[in-house]
Amino acid sequence: MTKTSTDPVYSARLLPDGEPFDAAAGRPLLQSALQASIFLESSCRNGSCRSCVCRLASGQVSYRIAWPGLSAEEKAEGWILPCVAFPASDLVLLPPGP
């Protein structure tokens, strides 16, 4: 989906020191990040390769596919796939790390 004039626009930020960027509800988070010159690892852009996986520190996302490539446990721990995750509120993201 693409952004329409009726889509809410939220603020998203990638920690530890990222600048906030606009994240439209009608656009996958990865697309919004790239439009704002925020680089996130990615490959397949359909939720299967998991290269874009990030942890949600705060906020909510929604998915428009039944299986976004994450287990129930990973979702419960806050992991998201920005390539298929749509923002549903302001967001703070943590990159994957050790």
TrEMBL record:
UniProtKB keywords: 2Fe-2S, Electron transport, Iron, Iron-sulfur, Metal-binding, Transport
One GO MF term: 2 iron, 2 sulfur cluster binding
InterPro entries referenced in this protein's UniProt entry, alphabetically: 2Fe-2S_ferredoxin-like_sf, 2Fe-2S_ferredoxin-type, Beta-grasp_dom_sf
Cofactor(s) listed: [2Fe-2S] cluster
Matches recorded under Pfam families: Fer2
Gene3D superfamilies membership: 3.10.20.30
Domain 2Fe-2S ferredoxin-type, residue spans: 10-98
Family to which this protein belongs: Belongs to the 2Fe2S plant-type ferredoxin family.
Official protein name in the record: Ferredoxin
Species this protein is from: Polaromonas eurypsychrophila
